[in-house]
Task: inverse folding
């Protein structure tokens, strides 16, 4: 049933097996609804959750994926042009980010990593705000409560604890919204993620853990870190899990909806392993050719998430000039907005550094702010060089 | 209008990058984000996308040049509309911001950003904003203060001058102290670089400064030596830097084995005298080195393993079918090892001429890079310094090096009797990755046999 048009790289180690027998796993070994060549294949359970997706919505999923890939390319270029200090590319992970991001309700709360800019785009964050922190312009780009997406974590995995805590708060409020934590394969080896899963299971908190297994924790391959499939790690905590093709936007959408529905109905946490691939470097300061076999990249390029959705649209006769033009125009406009918004971003004032340290007034901070402002003023007078 | 593109910090905290190639030429029309160059940083090879749409007006750097971050590398002729494509969109960007940006005062024209070590630092506006003062005051600035201080006057001027030159060349860290102590030092006219701190971690304390200011007569100052005249610091650069890197690389990649052999070279020295007197060698410079070099070349023919190279990248052993004989030479610039190309094809006459030329060129400091490259084995003549033996380090990329000791008269068992003979020690280091003890030993024994009994050559060639 599963097809892998690309075949496997010669150096690819066998995937850890035995997961099919895992009673806590939904959907078998690997859920795939859309093959790399764009063939829609059926799945008795997962099909139900995307039966409502219209042709028009398929087109909009395609548009979103193309747009975030363009955001990624433009931000990478801006970094190379000296406009950003750093950028973590998400190239190759568009289906996971859009498939899951588009499944969320506006009152759900997202706890993302630094790489989840596609998810932030889905939440409605203004495009230039995606790069504000990477430009060193502010500590963070947006107001978390405005879009219900928290600050992007650079620390690996800590946001899974934030998400679990937030989910426990939802329980106390008696609400039916869900907290969603995003993290990568490497994070599942961190203490924070494991602690979060203990608490999520103990309190049956409405939290969904979305693990984007992009195969590389910077330069560390995932197979070195886990001798079982990552989805099976969740079983050890008593958390039901799914393992889906992360380059298949429909499989990710379906799995996320299943997990969200379970959480909203009091069914507790779910762990989704989305099998995808980081096609770019870890960040713009990284050189993956030093640790990665180029054959592997080729294999995954053949499983490209956007190409396969495009192929499906083509098969369905939906890929006309009209759609292509519209998507291209949108991507161009977003890229231009990102570029101009970045280059013209107002500089923060020196005293802004004291903002947001505490939510309420704090005498220590006030004192420091006062000292610093007087220090700054001391430069406005005629001060002799060397007199200080 | 002309727009410059300055080299950005392409990684996190990089200070320079090398231009590998230009993908555009002057006069080319480029689009926004079109790849214009490939550059290599300490971290990765990356492509540079053009920040402008326009025409390439000038390329400021050549491929191969290492460029500091912040230097202009290319200029574009951009039409005015293209130069500021984003002006109109600015308000929209601000409107979409979270509270930080929208609360910011109506933006004054954004000052041009300057690259700092990590990405971009706070903008520096004209008039009144603090700029980080340089940690390293130029020596000139410190000098006037020093002149007013009697203590400093006691330092001999001659000792002082070179120290100051060295100081200005090297990016030294400011001596550790605290602001009040620095102020005290300034008030008393004490140059902190002249003090050793007695506090934790070398921290200069108030007492240190006071003692120093009270003059050399103060008892405590005995424990506070003025260090300037007691050591000389020389920046590591040029040949010294290159030699150091080559030696470290060689010492820590090739497992060295060194063997020694002391031989009676009386017969060889007698041969040398006869040759010198002969008409053929008139005008040629014949030395023990000449004969030893010839002996090495003859022995190599029988033991070619010593004339090879470990090619780690290709995982191959390269056996040379020619000999480029390197000769270590002490030159004014430092140690160099120029080599004689195809030395194995040379007769003794030719070889002696080549040796003379090589040493003269090296001493004049005129050795070309080509003469330094491509050596296959080396000889170092430590005997000229009166030394007998050593453990030479391989010239990187070569499998063996022979050190020639001094030829000296010594008591020696000759024909089963104790006699005064001319004796020389040979030291051979070889790379044990590709030369085993057997081959190394046979080679060294052959060189020794030729030098102790030159007639033995008849049995070898």
Result:
């Amino acid at each position: 049933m599963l097809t892998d048009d690309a075949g496997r790289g010669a150096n690819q180690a066998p995937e850890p097996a035995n997961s099919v027998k895992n009673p806590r796993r939904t959907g078998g070994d690997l859920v795939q609804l859309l093959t790399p060549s764009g063939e829609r294949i059926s799945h008795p359970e997962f099909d139900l959750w995307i039966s409502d997706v219209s042709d028009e919505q398929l087109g909009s999923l395609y548009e979103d994926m193309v747009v975030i890939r363009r955001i990624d390319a433009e931000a990478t270029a801006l970094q190379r042009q000296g406009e950003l200090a750093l950028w973590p590319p998400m190239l190759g992970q568009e289906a996971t980010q859009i498939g899951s991001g588009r499944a969320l309700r506006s009152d759900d709360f997202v706890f993302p990593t630094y790489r989840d800019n596609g998810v932030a785009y889905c939440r409605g964050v203004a495009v230039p705000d995606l790069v504000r922190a990477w430009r060193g312009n502010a500590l963070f780009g947006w107001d978390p409560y405005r879009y219900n997406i928290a600050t992007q974590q650079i620390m690996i995995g800590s946001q899974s604890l934030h998400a679990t805590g937030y989910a426990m708060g939802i329980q106390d409020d008696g609400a039916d919204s869900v907290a969603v934590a995003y993290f990568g394969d490497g994070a599942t080896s961190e203490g924070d993620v494991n602690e979060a899963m203990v608490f999520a299971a103990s309190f049956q908190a409405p939290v969904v853990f979305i693990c984007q297994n992009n195969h590389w924790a910077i330069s560390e391959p995932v197979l070195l870190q886990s001798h079982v499939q990552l989805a099976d790690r969740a079983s050890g905590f008593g958390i039901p899990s799914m393992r889906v093709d992360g380059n298949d936007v429909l499989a990710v959408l379906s799995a996320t909806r299943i997990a969200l529905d379970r959480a909203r109905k009091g069914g507790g946490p779910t762990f989704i392993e989305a099998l995808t691939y980081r096609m770019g470097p870890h960040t713009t300061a990284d050189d993956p050719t030093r640790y990665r076999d180029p054959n592997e990249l080729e294999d995954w390029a053949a499983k490209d998430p956007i190409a396969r959705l495009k192929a499906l649209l083509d098969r369905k006769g939906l890929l006309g000039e009209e759609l292509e033009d519209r998507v291209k125009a949108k991507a161009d406009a977003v890229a231009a907005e990102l570029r101009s918004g970045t280059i013209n971003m107002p500089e923060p004032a020196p005293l802004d550094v004291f903002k947001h340290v505490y939510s309420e007034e704090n005498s220590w901070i006030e004192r420091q702010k006062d000292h610093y402002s007087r220090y700054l003023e001391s430069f406005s007078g005629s001060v002799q060089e060397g007199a200080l | 209008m002309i727009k410059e593109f300055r080299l950005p910090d392409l990684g996190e905290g990089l200070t320079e990058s090398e231009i590998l190639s230009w993908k555009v030429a002057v006069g080319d029309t480029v689009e926004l984000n079109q790849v214009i160059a490939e550059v290599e940083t300490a971290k990765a090879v990356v492509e540079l996308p053009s920040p402008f749409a326009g025409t390439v007006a000038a390329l400021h750097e050549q491929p191969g040049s290492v460029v500091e971050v912040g230097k202009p590398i290319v200029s574009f002729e951009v039409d005015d509309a293209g130069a500021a494509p984003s002006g109109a969109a600015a308000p929209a960007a601000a409107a979409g911001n979270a509270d930080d940006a929208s609360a910011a005062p109506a933006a004054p024209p954004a000052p041009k950003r300057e690259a700092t070590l990590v990405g971009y630092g706070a903008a520096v506006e004209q008039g009144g904003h603090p700029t980080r003062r340089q940690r390293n005051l130029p020596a000139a600035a410190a000098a006037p203060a020093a002149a007013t201080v009697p203590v400093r006057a006691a330092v001999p001027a001659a000792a002082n001058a070179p120290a100051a030159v060295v100081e200005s060349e090297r990016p030294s860290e400011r001596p550790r102290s605290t602001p009040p102590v620095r102020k005290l030092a300034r008030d008393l006219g004490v140059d902190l670089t002249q003090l050793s701190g007695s506090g934790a971690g070398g921290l200069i304390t108030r007492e240190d400064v006071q003692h120093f200011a009270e003059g050399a007569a103060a008892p405590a100052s005995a424990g506070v030596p003025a260090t300037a005249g007691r050591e000389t610091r020389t920046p590591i650069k040029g040949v010294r830097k290159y030699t150091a890197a080559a030696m470290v690389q060689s010492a820590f990649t090739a497992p060295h084995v060194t063997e020694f052999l002391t031989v009676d070279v009386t017969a060889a020295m007698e041969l040398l005298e006869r040759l010198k007197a002969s008409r053929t060698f008139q005008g040629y410079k014949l030395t023990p080195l000449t004969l030893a070099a010839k002996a090495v070349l003859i022995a190599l023919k029988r033991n070619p393993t010593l004339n090879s190279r470990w090619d780690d990248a290709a995982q191959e052993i390269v056996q040379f079918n020619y000999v480029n004989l390197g000769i270590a030479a002490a030159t004014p610039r430092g140690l160099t090892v120029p080599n004689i190309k195809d030395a194995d094809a040379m007769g003794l006459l030719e070889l002696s001429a080549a040796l003379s030329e090589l040493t003269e060129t090296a001493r004049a400091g005129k050795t070309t890079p080509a003469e330094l490259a491509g050596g296959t084995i080396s000889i170092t003549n430590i005997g000229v310094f009166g030394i007998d033996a050593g453990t030479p380090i391989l010239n990187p990329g070569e499998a063996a090096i022979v050190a020639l000791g001094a030829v000296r008269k010594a008591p020696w068992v000759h024909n089963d009797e104790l006699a005064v003979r001319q004796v020389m020690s040979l030291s051979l280091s070889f790379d044990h990755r590709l030369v085993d003890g057997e081959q190394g030993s046979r080679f060294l024994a052959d060189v020794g046999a030729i030098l102790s009994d030159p007639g033995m050559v008849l049995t070898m060639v």
User: Anything to note?
Assistant: The radius of gyration of chain B is 33 Å. Chain B touches chain A through 49 residues (CB under 8 Å). Confidence is low (pLDDT under 50) at residues 83-171, 216-226 of chain B. The longest helix of chain B spans residues 238-253.
